[in-house]
Amino acid sequence: MRKFTIPTWCTIGWLGFVIFLAIFGSLLPFRPWEYVYEDSLGVAPFSPGHLLGTDTNGYDLLSSVVNGARLSLFISITAVGIGGFIGAILGITAAYVRGKLDTVMVTLFNVALSVPNLVLALALVSVLATNIDVNNPVPTWRRVVVLTAALTIVLIPILGRIARAATLSWTNREFVVAARSMGMRDRNIIARHIVPNVLPALIAVGFLAIGVVIIAEASLSLLGVGVPDGASWGGMIARGRNDLEYSPHVLYVPLAFLALTVISTNHLGDVLRSSLDRRESKL
Amino acid sequence: MTRVTYLLRRLAQLFIVLLLVTFGVSLLVRLIPVDLAEVLLPVGSQEEQDELRRAIGLDKGVFGYYFQWLGNFVRGDFGSIYYSGGTEAVSARLAAAFPRSFLLMIYTQVVALAIAIPLGVISAYRAGRRTDRLIGNSLFTFSSLPSFAIALTLVIVVGVKLAWLPTLGYAPISDGIWEHLKYMIMPVASLSIGLIAVYTRLLRADMIATLREDYVTMAASKGLSDRRILWRHVFRPSSLTLFTSAALNMGGLIGGAIVIESIFATYGVGFELFAAIQGRQFIALQSLVAIIAIFYVAFNLIVDIGSGFVDPRTRDRRINA
To answer: Does A130 contact B33 at a Cβ distance shorter than 8 Å?
Structure first.
């Protein structure tokens, strides 16, 4: 493995920092995030007592951002993890078995991909989060579960298609043919020879997908169907949009955290992908 | 396999995909744990609701409902949106929304390609040098920003502080071309920045690969100028991935620009879809998703046919794949 460059170390550091905040943020001595500071409404960043300022409702932005990191990262990592796992199983199996199963799988992927991602996510959220009683609002935890499930479902065909394409390029390699001719079981061939080769490519795409999901969560919040009450970065951005003209920092503080995180995951995904290319070309 | 049978097979595949998409949405609509007639006509009497159930096939089960919708859809009846005071045909709303989305998509593509092609050619020509790294890094940063962040920043800076452009609404071309463009500049800018990064990268990678070909060395040793080699000999064979990707983005751009359309109140197809979901107008939702899927699939087919014309080498290769 080649040594990492300075920007790569920076992105790893930032991601580590955000993950640390997401896990241990509630244990650190931050102000409570859902507390309204009525004496300091909409103060600018770097004010005494409020490092990143407050929004016009009087919520402390530093505490909110730390708290929002938890849900934003939870939703994106869970969606990419589960979606990638299911997608990988479907894609690898389809490409390895070929035949009818492959045709069916490709058709299903195409069906899901022919609807724009955000539209699909939006439709799934609205169907899954519909209460029988219109006047009874859906609780936040259920919204989070529904949102994560919807984004997972959206990711399955995207990652599945990539897993399938990657597998196809390995199934006819000499070592796979050799393993098969020696009578190795298909299950073992997939586990020992296909998965280790497909996995790095999938992980690289997975990093890019995390960035996409973080943005998708924010977009859905902006449309009013995401996590309510500013409990995630997307929720904070949706809130900050109303204060854009007079206290723009309410929007740009969560946006900066979101953008830096997305830049980091994108960069890491790129670094991983290009390191894979290098190995391939050396062969 | 000849070309004609290949195309026929592709058409059949796409047809199946469309049927499955529309059936999937239909199923999704029926899975909602509410009585649709009650949602669409909340203040209607029992008889009115029963009549609606019969009219849209809610009394027939999943398949009956789907085929009734499909029959109407094929005949151009996309269903209605139900208000407290009456109904409005989805086709009428679509007639207003579609040109907006279509023009937004076309402008976005033209702007993105017009900027990405020169940038991609320059990056490939100066690969690894300072210009290339500058272009690559700045595009990378921009592409990592969500499009709504660019849109909101534009609204506040260009729209409110400088007051150069209107922040909300849409003007048709019949109001004058400049008036029309005034409303389109900011949405197009927010949508195209992400695409520029993608397109530049695709073109750069393909051009670098082509620049290694022997015939490029040959052209250089004949004494052709770099400019001529780049544009005449390298750009065309390298542009296939770029145009394929651009064409595949079209379907997604028509329905997928929901956030941008709602920020700028452009009210195109994406926004209609969002409004249908928010207002629980499920018949409208079904028809709109079908329309978007048809566009996506149609552009897919065009890509397939078109790439054979741009690069004859892919004709046979693809059939074997």
So the answer is: yes
